[in-house]
């Protein structure tokens, strides 16, 4: 294998095959416990919420059950909101921010909304602190028919089973320094492409839908989060992660075309949050609370404007 192109696995310009994917999987290790750090917190919510196991990952079903949490006073006349975290398992505040919202704020907002929360879509990724699943597939690029990621397929099946229209979907993510030190170089190597370095934005930003941007909704989220953490500035070209900003701290992606999780419900209002946990200006708790603030900003906007 030729490692001169900047990643330790593969050969420059050649897509990975089974050998390279196996080599990548072999160097992953378990670094934390999904059952101890996530599932135990989910079960602790059972007095106030309905908890549903909607599947389990085939890699190890006993280690990786998949859970959804629903508000109790469910009423199909109320608008319904989906909150997801841990699509990328290494993005920690997405998982723990969702759990914090459940324990601190969800019951308050259940008077106005049905709320369905899936705090950790990719538990193997959570344990290995990884963006991909064991097959070197990114679940957050796999929300389409016949998905190659069972994490994504299970969530799509759960959403469809609700047989209800979702008004909004908040998908909780992080952008980390490891995006540039590990995950984007690995992606380029896997796909046989050249890795072009980018700048990791210092601060929170949100991602709307190119086809349905909902500028005021995105602004409400940013304005709520700025009370907890700083908002990412644009780079010298007016971009964040290579995309032009549409307003302070907001960029847009074509959700459906990219197979992103935020497209899973066809909701009118969607936002992908991006917390920056590697900033010296924030703590882990502040990152979690930034995710909570993003959800609150979205829900308050919907209460007042929809």
From TrEMBL:
GO biological process, one term: proteolysis
UniProt keyword Metal-binding, yes or no: yes
One Pfam assignment: AstE_AspA_cat
The protein's required cofactors: Zn(2+)
All residue ranges annotated as the Peptidase M14 domain in the record: 30-306
Highest taxon of source: Bacteria
InterPro entries: AstE_AspA_cat (IPR055438), Peptidase_M14 (IPR000834)
Keyword field: Hydrolase, Metal-binding, Zinc
UniProt GO MF annotations: hydrolase activity, acting on ester bonds; metallocarboxypeptidase activity; zinc ion binding
Family: Belongs to the peptidase M14 family.
Protein name stated in the entry: DUF2817 domain-containing protein
Organism: Photobacterium iliopiscarium
Lineage: Bacteria, Pseudomonadati, Pseudomonadota, Gammaproteobacteria, Vibrionales
